[in-house]
Known about the structure:
Layout: H1 26-29, H2 54-68, H3 72-86, H4 89-102, H5 105-117, H6 123-136, H7 139-150, H8 156-167, H9 171-183, H10 191-203, H11 207-220, H12 225-237, H13 241-251, H14 259-271, H15 275-282, H16 289-301, H17 305-317, H18 324-336, H19 340-348, H20 354-369, H21 373-384, H22 391-407, H23 411-424, H24 429-441, H25 445-458, H26 463-476, H27 480-493, H28 498-510, H29 514-527, H30 531-543, H31 547-560, H32 565-574
Helix pairs in contact: 2-3, 3-4, 3-5, 4-5, 4-6, 5-6, 6-7, 6-8, 7-8, 7-9, 10-11, 10-12, 11-12, 12-13, 12-14, 14-15, 15-16, 16-17, 16-18, 17-18, 18-19, 18-20, 19-20, 20-21, 20-22, 21-22, 22-23, 24-25, 25-26, 26-27, 26-28, 27-28, 28-29, 29-30, 30-31, 30-32
Signal peptide: 1-35
TPR repeats: 429-462, 531-564
Keywords: Signal, TPR repeat
Amino acid sequence: MASIHGSLPRRRASGTPARLLLSASLALILSPALAAPAARSAAAAPLDASAATSAALEPLLTGEFALQAGKLKEAATAYADAARASRDRELAARATDIAIVAKEDALAAQSLALWRELGGSGAPLLASQAVLALRSGDERAALRHLDQLMTADESGWRRALAALSTGSKDPPQAARLLQKLIEGGKLPNDLMAWVAYGLYAQRLDQPKLTERIVAEVVRRFPGNPRVSLLRASQLREDGNKDEARKVLESVAGQADADPQLRGLIAQEYDALGDLQTAAATLGRGTQDDQTYALRASLLARAEDKTTLTALYDELRRNAHRPEPGRRLLLGQIAEFLERNEEALDWYRGVPGGPQRWVARLRAANVLHELKRGDEAYAALRALQSDASAEEDTRRDAYLLEAALYAQDKNNAAELDAYARGLAAYPDEPEMLYARALSYERNDDIPRAEADFRRILVAEPDSVAALNALGYTLADRTTRYQEALELIQRARTAEPDNAAIIDSYGWVLYRLGRNQEALVELRRALTLQKDPEIASHLAEVLWVSGQKDEARKYFEQARKLDPENRALKRALEKTGA
């Protein structure tokens, strides 16, 4: 029910509607802007060569070339050489960062020592020390650094949580340190901080620790409805869904005048699988096109056509004026309700504004659903040649044409649509990316690789293309070392991206490094509940002999998406 394309896609799509993610989610807390040290991107622009001595220039350039090639150990070594030659503190910090991302801990420790010797101090240095102590198993030192980090500045609790997530070897170690941090009394009296640590404990599958944190939050912040939401989340994770619903019901009355709180409550009902109640919660209080759209989306996912029809009737009674956004939404609801003729009328009635272009694309899709394929394709070609249309719309018209031909299983016409689109928009990355995925889906790996590489020629630091190509080579070829180097380049730019961590874990598995793979795949699943990640973790556990735990993650993947391709391949391979 959304427009067909947004920004350049990742290897997998996100599951939860972004507009419902209003809570202090772990992904936000561990965002690259806040995380340390790994999230200080090792792929940032190179430092000015004038900052280094002539003796440092050669290793500095060597380091940049190695970084661009995904050879992180060589890059970290070269940057360390440059830092020693120039006695430059920033170069030493950069060398430490790259070595940590590369998991070259001995080299990271040497660079960190130089960084400290050159006057390095403060939160970034403490975070790096904490990560290395965690990896070495020195939990006493790690706790000391995390405690210091917690009070280093106002964002110290965020940095400490990021360092714990980055450096911990496995969930039990992370849980032990998390418990000691809570017991140490250094966590600030800040609701968001406590919620974040509670959510992290939840994601580590530590119900007792989560319950302890929740109890402390309730004691510290009595009467705050967001505390009740954390409690409901904890109960849900523990399997006490009825109790979770009671908690949500107890705070529902406080949400009528608070749109954000309504969104958070709806998100919890969504997580409980009660999509109708989530929609009803959003329906309380003042409504606008955003809340109407969210309600429609939830009801569509619930396949509750009765309630969705009632919403549709309510909206169309007030649609006598030409309001583009409302008419577009009505068309989308009608389309889901399979009232395709009505949907077509709504789309064609959108009078102007940016909604008009989305409506024209959706109208073509509806024509295809009505088995009026010739009209659908003619409408898309008219959009492609309409000089008044927005450039994104014209591009999307080629992408939608190709997608519809794919539904028709007309591979030749699909590829022709991509070819014409690329003739109109040479080397357009989204077009190349979509065609590469089509090639991969049809087992034409050489052509998929060629398109990913065309993106990288124009955009050498495209994280999406680096990750997708690296994963494709790891998953569909035996060129594992080459795949590793590509994924390493993506990791340096976005070290906390769950899809990239999953790719890294998968290539480690392909290389036979199963225990290292398990660490990465567990971390990826902690950051994002995703059927592909769960399937990968389950497969590695299965081949490692941990079949009972593997079955748990296979079941999780089935619940998330029983038709997932990675899940089907893993089940076929393992016979689980």
